[in-house]
């Protein structure tokens, strides 16, 4: 990415050095990245970083213009922001009080540079200008490609091009690939056309006739510029069309664009479907279970496992299915439904530890569940004002009192349900006005260990200042504070329940 002759200039713009120019550049960058097949999460990350860096220069250095250039080399993208101001490093945090529009508010004096694993920001002083380069990588694609070509030499060459970044299965004819596609599927099919009656077009038509829901995108290769063939491919829903011979760079660029476009479609579909399913896993808790008041809030992530919460009378069960991507989320949906049915069969008088022990026994007996890891917190809200709880790897609640705000000591099993499980119950007597902050792992700010010191300090200070604020307003403000700290970096679901002793 450092050698200019290997880069492709994708977009450039000269912008006014004011906030209207930054807004224009941000909107243009958004459109360019969408055309390149980037997903919503990554586009949002780009917009935020560009806006922050350009705004600092305009606000503090007062240049006369901004020059922006976007370069691309395979998976690496580089955005250059150049200004003609005196020496000024926008990478150094500077306070900005600026609202560009309703979804971008830059009023946080403590904005920090992104994780270097996600992006790299470098400042250089040129003879007469400041140059800030922002380098990002698209998410690695590990798609499975079925390559069909009747010529062995061409098939081998194309497979060699693609195998550096993808898993490639090759076939000499579309008929050979049909049974594999029906049985195993693929993320993309690349096929030549017109060499035999059952060619790539016929294969695409045959799969469409089956009305399959998992039909992969098709990319067709041909040496013919016949417009009828092109129209037929488009009519069958082909994602793209390449004339051979094709060079490696062009092939990889088109394949990446097709796969990212497909991935973006799945994300948009998940945005519509997942909230509906997730809402059923986090039912609306009652405002009170005497003598307690309750308020629940959530933040959902597209990555990672999935949270669920189940209420049965005075019993609450919060769970976190550990895992990644859609598989973990789908399993969480099924697992929560399974738990609902199971809890209905358990005696209502069982305490939290008994409930967790029974769940652990069932998991060990079930060949599927025994291969999963689930963190669970079980609570009983007693009429006396005490809370009895037991944890299996789930974070312990925070006790919010007049004198201190501290996490409760953990007596549970840190590895979750399963194995040689043994849970110990804790009884927490709450006085009037005292609260419990019950939360899943998402509140840890994606940290593996303790809460990052700054986030923890801000959270504790916020809880102290909201001691006399109603719990519903406090719960909502905690999530707003969480959003301000973590913005586009949410990698795990957050479920938060605030519980208060009312009388």
UniProtKB/TrEMBL annotation:
It comes from the Bacteria. Keywords: DNA-binding, Phosphoprotein, Transcription, Transcription regulation, Two-component regulatory system. This is SpoIIE family protein phosphatase. Signal peptide: none annotated. The modification 4-aspartylphosphate is found at residue 192. It holds the Pfam family Response_reg. Residues 144-259 form the Response regulatory domain. The keyword Phosphoprotein applies. The keyword Phosphoprotein applies. Coiled coil: none annotated. It comes from Pseudaeromonas paramecii. InterPro entries: CheY-like_superfamily, HATPase_C_sf, PPM-type-like_dom_sf, PPM-type_phosphatase-like_dom, Sig_transdc_resp-reg_receiver, WalR-like.
